[in-house]
Amino acid sequence: MQSIKIEHYTIGREQQPLIIAEMSGNHNQSLDRALAIVDAAADCGVQALKLQTYTADTMTIDSDEGEFFIDDPNSLWKGNSLYKLYQQAYTPWEWHKPIFDRCQEHGILGFSTPFDESAVDFLESLDVPCYKIASFEMTDLPLIRKVAATGKPMIISTGMATVAEIDETVRVARQSGCQKLILLKCTSTYPAAPTNTNLMTIPHMGKLFDCQVGLSDHTMGIGASIASVALGATIIEKHFTLSRSDGGVDSAFSLEPPEMKAMVTECKRAFQALGQITYGPMKEEELSLHHRRSLYVVEDIRKGEFFTKKNVRAIRPGLGLPTKYLDIVIGRKAQQNVSRGTPVSWDFL
Q1: In this structure, what CATH number is given to the domain that contains residue 263?
Q2: Same domain, 207 and 288
Q3: Domain AFP-like, which positions (predicted)?
Q4: Is 223 contained in some domain?
Q5: Confidence band, pLDDT 50/70/90 cuts, at residue 137
Q6: Contact assessment for residue 90 and residue 54, using Cβ atoms and an 8 Å cutoff
Q7: Which domain holds residue 335?
Q8: Cβ proximity of 202 and 223 under 8 Å
Q9: Which residue from 71, 301, 312, 343 has the least number of CB within 10 angstroms?
Q10: Torsion of CA 205, 209, 211, 212, to 10 degrees
């Protein structure tokens, strides 16, 4: 599967996963806080920071009635209208450039999720390096065509999507000019339960659509993200905040800096641990071979005496005959005197 280049980062199975910190609405309507989130994310070692580009008016209509009101008792946002929620969560468009500039200062990617065509036009004016499509917009084919036509890499979340829906989106994206496509396994609940995460879909999705696959992780903690590395995830996206106690629309399922730093470190270790298929002692293990068990004389034996289970044992270190020869050695006569603590050799028999 071909690697994908986004600015100075190479994304592929031969590289450690690209970690994206999702700011979303965790700036709490403060540009200073937004810039502090960028600084903290970079300090944690992430390779990218992502925004969301919309306004309440581009997302929905201003209504508290019916389906425009969130009354799900299990929702983090119960009691809000969609419009008021998006007013609270949106990132002012005039903040995008200073946020992206701060990303550039740190040498990390800064990009965004557009939610309508006007957002794409705006982000193009800022020359973003790539685009992310949210799960809820994955089936918005006019938006997919608009983004694909930029020719820039597309990262598409697949929460809730059927195989047929993903197939249609992938076909439209490729036909519309996208040559660099990465899908993200995603569960669109907030937070998501590990039992609903189904990471085994990652390699299956990669084979099915012949593309790289990553994880958009809404679970609590970092376990799912680390596990995804072993299944071939090349991108991991995780919501990020300075402190959950500060509140914010996504804070409840966002990582704090020490957690993000740990995730970056452990994902790197997980990738390094994958290695390759190999058997036999590695060069670094050769000294350890000396600590295998082998046959040793554990009591003095005089010439002509028999080797027995009393005077020969399988012990460490491994400088004697391999233990598989114990039954052959037992019952044989010694050709010479052998002192206690001597590794058994064929020359003694």
Answers
A1: 3.20.20.70
A2: no
A3: 294-349
A4: yes
A5: very high
A6: yes
A7: 283-348
A8: no
A9: 71
A10: -10
Q: Are 22 and 83 in contact (CB under 8 A)?
A: no
Which of 117, 116, 62, 103 minimizes the C-alpha distance to 86? 62
Q: Which residues contact 55 (CB under 8 A, 6 or more apart)?
A: 86, 90, 93
Question: Both ends of the chain: CA-CA distance in Å?
Answer: 59
Q: What pLDDT score was predicted for residue 308? A: 97
Among 222, 255, 274, the domain-final residue is 274
Residue 73 lies in a domain: no
Cα distance between residue 338 and residue 301, in whole Å: 5
Q: What is the predicted pLDDT for the residue at 23?
A: 97
* CA separation for the pair 46, 107 (Å, rounded): 10
State the pairing for strand pair 9-11/4-6.
Answer: antiparallel
Same domain, 23 and 130: yes
Query: What is the per-residue pLDDT for 239?
Result: 97
> Alpha-carbon distance 76 to 348, whole Å?
77
What does the alpha-carbon distance between residue 217 and residue 253 come to, in Å, rounded to a whole number?
Answer: 10
At residue 75, the pLDDT reads 78
Q: How far apart are CA 168 and CA 292, in angstroms?
A: 57
Spatial distance between the Cα atoms of 89 and 316, rounded to a whole number of angstroms: 64
